[in-house]
Specification:
Aspartate Aminotransferase, domain 1; seven-stranded mixed β-sheet; Aspartate Aminotransferase, domain 2
């Protein structure tokens, strides 16, 4: 066989597919991969059905249908106070494609890119595929805060960009105003582009509106903000995302996007445009997820498991060591799915290097109440037998 790209030949199967595969094979409850079991809201599916009947199903404009680009701009004006036009918005086939397009547009061979870990496991391979070098800045439990000293120590004359995930998956933490100001200062001082994965911006449970790094003084021309309809509306299979940036920057990211997926199904775009105008729909989903989050977190606490602080995302993290469990996270996760019938994600799988915390486990809470209660019972029963 001819030599293949070493970026991919060296990659293992993603931890999400691995754990979901084990769950499927064994019939376990899947609290590993992040997706709701319920269908998207009826308003969303009704809108896409109308669009299929009444609108074009052929190639839409490469940058996205104007209706969705306008809707994204209006949504962020209402919810985050951002002043945008459709020229700031490029629609992509999911947020991961947006991350890929942004990295390909920004990173050239030899450029270094700061990644904060634990991190979504797509970031580093995408940087390497672009010819760049990922440089990891480690965050530490339980608060996972950004520290100026650690960030500046990682910067060299070759540093070109940073990838910033806020709210942070897998930890569920939210950057403070102080941390946002710190990143903005560093980006400007070192002339860095900030690629901001903000897909969890509407899945917050602290009652506070999301603030984007894009809104920080001096960051409008050096930030690419990434959003996801799949996360906002619990429709992960739709794969509708977007990039938001200054028009001159957005135009370059569009050139990368055009040779990835080129377009996103127009029926889905029209439906998402309608849904983004319905703030009540977004709030209702957030209320539903807050309720299921409480069920899982309270159940885990009653079972004697130490739940780490987290104000956002569909995920809850538990500290195994603080819970009196001496098994490392990868072993615990493997045994939990095989012996107790509950799939989870070991946080160390979202970390590169030898110094990963090996005592943190991530569980997904955007599931039906009965499923979560069943999962807690299984975990409690299995733990008592360890």
């Amino acid at each position: 066989m001819a030599a293949l790209n070493p970026v991919y030949t060296a990659l293992p199967t993603t931890i999400f597919e691995h754990m979901s595969g084990l769950a499927r094979a064994s019939g376990a409850i899947n609290l590993g991969q992040g997706f709701p079991d319920a269908p998207p809201p009826f308003a969303l599916t009704a809108a896409v059905a109308r669009a299929m009947a009444e609108r074009s199903q052929q190639y839409p404009p490469m940058a996205g249908v104007p209706e969705l680009r306008d809707a994204v701009s209006a949504f962020y004006a209402r919810t985050q106070g951002l002043e945008l036009t459709r020229d700031h918005v490029i629609v992509t086939s999911g947020a991961t494609e947006a991350v890929a397009a942004a990295i390909l547009a920004v990173v050239a061979a030899g450029d270094e890119v700061l990644l904060f870990q634990p991190a979504y496991d797509a970031y580093a391979p995408l940087v390497r595929r672009a010819g760049g070098v990922p440089v990891f800045v480690n965050l530490r439990p339980p608060h996972w805060q950004l520290e100026r000293t650690a960030i500046e120590a990682a910067i060299t004359p070759r540093t070109r960009a940073l990838v910033f995930n806020d709210p942070l998956n897998p930890t569920g933490t939210v950057a403070s105003a102080t941390e946002l100001a710190l990143l903005a200062q560093i980006a400007q001082a070192h002339d860095l582009i900030a690629i901001c994965d903000e897909v969890w911006e509407q899945v917050r449970f602290d009652g506070q509106p999301h603030r984007s790094l894009l809104a920080e003084p001096g960051m409008a021309g050096r930030t690419i903000k990434i959003g996801s309809a799949g996360k906002i509306f619990g429709a992960t299979g739709w794969k509708v995302g977007w990039m938001v940036a200054a028009p001159e920057l957005a135009a370059v990211t569009a050139k990368a996007h055009q040779f990835l997926t080129f377009t996103t199904p127009p029926m889905l775009q029209y439906a998402v445009a309608e849904a983004l105008a319905d703030d009540g729909l977004v709030q209702g989903l957030r209320d539903d997820w807050a309720a299921t989050r409480a069920i899982l977190n309270q159940g885990l606490a009653r079972a004697g498991l130490a739940v780490l602080p987290g104000l956002a995302t569909w995920f809850t993290c538990i500290d195994l060591a603080a819970s009196g469990i001496v098994i490392d996270d990868a072993t615990f996760a493997d045994r939990l799915v095989r012996e107790a019938g509950v799939a989870s994600i070991p946080l160390s799988a979202l970390w590169e290097g030898p110094d990963a915390p090996r005592h943190i486990l991530r569980l997904c809470h955007c599931k039906p109440a009965a499923m979560l209660n069943d999962a807690v019972e299984r975990i409690t029963r299995w733990r008592s037998e360890l």
